[in-house]
């Protein structure tokens, strides 16, 4: 199984809603990532987890709250988002997190904030 | 982190070879060069990674000159399905986890 599965594929939420994005992998990878991608732009790194601990937070606003309940799961909790947060949110995993390895990406969750 | 520069777009015909050059003038000794491909509304997909000289796999070749200040991704005999955005990344073993994507090159293959 070489897949990273993200749910939901599409999400529409109001600025006062609370929602979550979920990501799952069963490749035994110990590093997991959240990226944000706006239209016609490259993916931007948001968070990195290594061995279930948050290792990198790229100065992401607190309205985005990551969580790694176990080595296979990664969540992104969303609260009080702004319309400019509308984007494709990509989850990825890698074997360890050393930068010489391959990142496996999911297909993304497309978020629209009204 | 080393900054990368690559062309914004390239056009090609089916069956031709496409070469995309990426500039990374401030690459460090421990940095690796990695390329990803992305189709619309999908996550990026790893293509190839190299440190120096030439690396080849079933999809592409990666040429890296001795000074490592640039690299060229070569896609042999492209087809319509190779239309995608191609990203060059410099992955540093000194910046654990920080894989930052550059602007990418939109490759369009026409019949």
Reconstruct the topology from this structure.
The complex is a heterodimer of chains A (114) and B (111).
Chain A lengths: L3 E4 L2 E4 L4 E8 L5 E7 L6 E7 L2 E5 L6 E7 L2 E7 L7 E8 L9 E2 L3 E5 L1
Chain B lengths: L8 E5 L4 E6 L7 E8 L6 E6 L2 E4 L4 E4 L5 E6 L8 E9 L12 E6 L1
Parallel strand pairs in B: 1-9
Antiparallel strand pairs in B: 2-7, 3-4, 3-8, 5-6, 6-7, 8-9
Radius of gyration of chain B: 13 Å
Q: Give, in spatial order, the strands making up the sheet with the most strands of chain B.
A: 1-9-8-3-4
Distance between the termini of chain A: 36 Å
Number of helices of chain A: 0
In helices, the fraction of residues of chain B equals under 10%
**What class do helices, strands and sheet pairing of chain A give?**
mainly beta
Count of DSSP-assigned helices of chain B? 0
Q: Biggest interface in this structure?
A: A-B, 27 and 23 residues
Q: Give the low-confidence spans of chain A.
A: none
Oligomer: heterodimer
Mean pLDDT of chain A: 93
Q: Could you describe the largest sheet of chain B, including whether it forms a barrel?
A: 5 strands, mixed
Succession of helices and strands of chain B: EEEEEEEEE
Structural class of chain B: mainly beta
Average pLDDT over all residues of chain B = 92
Strand content of chain B: over 45%
Shape of chain B: globular
% residues in beta strands of chain A: over 45%
Distance between the termini of chain B: 39 Å
**What is the chain-wise order of helices and strands of chain A?**
EEEEEEEEEEE
């Amino acid at each position: 199984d070489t897949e990273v599965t993200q749910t939901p594929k599409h999400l529409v939420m109001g600025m006062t809603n609370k929602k979550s994005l979920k990501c799952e992998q069963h490749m035994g990878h110990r590093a997991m990532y959240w990226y944000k991608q706006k239209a016609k732009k490259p993916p931007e790194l948001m968070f990195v987890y290594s061995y279930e601990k948050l290792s990198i937070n790229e100065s992401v606003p607190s309205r985005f709250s990551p969580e790694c309940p176990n080595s296979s799961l990664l969540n992104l909790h969303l609260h009080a988002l702004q319309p400019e947060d509308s984007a494709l949110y990509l989850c990825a995993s890698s074997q360890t997190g050393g930068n010489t390895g391959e990142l496996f990406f999911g297909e993304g969750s497309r978020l629209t904030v009204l | 982190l080393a900054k990368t520069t690559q062309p914004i777009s390239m056009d090609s015909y089916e069956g031709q070879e496409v070469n995309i050059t990426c500039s990374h003038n401030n690459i460090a000794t421990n940095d690796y060069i990695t390329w990803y491909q992305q189709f619309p509304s999908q996550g990026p997909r790893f293509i190839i990674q190299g440190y120096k000289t030439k690396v080849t796999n079933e999809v592409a070749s990666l040429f890296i000159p001795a000074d490592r200040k640039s690299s060229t991704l070569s896609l042999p005999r492209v087809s319509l399905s190779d239309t995608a955005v191609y990203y060059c990344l410099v992955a540093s073993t000194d910046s654990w986890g920080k894989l930052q994507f550059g602007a990418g090159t939109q490759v369009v293959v026409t019949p």
